[in-house]
Amino acid sequence: MAPTSETLTAERILEATEEVLRRHGPAKATVVDVARALGVSHGSVYRHFRTKAALREAVTKRWLDRTSGELSGIVAADRDPETRLRDWLAALFAAKRRKAGDDPELFATYTVLTDENGTAVGEHIADLTSQLTRIIEAGVATGDFAAIDPEATARAVFQATGRFHDPCYAREWEEPGAESDFRAVVDLLVRGLRP
Q: Which ranges of the sequence are annotated as binding DNA (predicted)?
């Protein structure tokens, strides 16, 4: 293997892993493939990620964190809580549709990886519901929303919109009427949150 001129970092390994997963799929991608793509020994990869499972968990977390990062800006935006809630839900739906539509091979790969990485998925869902909780708390504070338990309400909103962000529904996201169904569900939820 030819030595690489760039410093080997965890981020470079994760980028290479994503490419290897795209090319080979989760069943055939190996740490040796990642090392080969980077021009290093597989031992060098293991110095950053102790096991293949740890590497797969990290690449899954990185993929999920992209969505969380996009949405966090909406939570902090200086807009009324109803607008933030609508924008947040729409951005989540759009992000998931984009991931499924723009790179279906990688989306299918990550669907497999998220099934085997419960920790990363659990943390992702906790982060998303925490973001929703902050929006709902802001709505309660301004009197726009009525929620006795904003955290439980956030979980309910997240679950009620599952058809528009849970990967198991990905095939339905581009069907005719998906967008109007989404708007109808969000309208219903917002009406239910009003005092």
A: 30-49
**54 vs 103 pLDDT, higher one:** 54
Q: Work out the pLDDT band at 57, boundaries 50, 70, 90.
A: confident
For residues 135 and 77, give the distance between their C-alpha atoms in angstroms, rounded to a whole number: 10
* Burial class (CB within 10 angstroms; exposed 0-12, middle 13-18, buried 19+) of 27: exposed
Q: Does CATH place domain 57-193 in 3.40.50.720? A: no
Domain 10-50 falls in which CATH fold? Arc Repressor Mutant, subunit A (1.10.10)
Residues 6+ apart with CB under 8 A from 137: 150
Alpha carbons 115 and 134: distance in angstroms, whole number: 28
pLDDT at 117: 65
Q: Alpha carbon of 84 to those of 7, 146, 186: distances in Å?
A: 41, 16, 12
What are the extents of the domains in the chain? 10-50, 57-193
Q: What is the pLDDT of residue 4?
A: 46
Q: Which two tokens stand for residue 100?
A: 């499924």
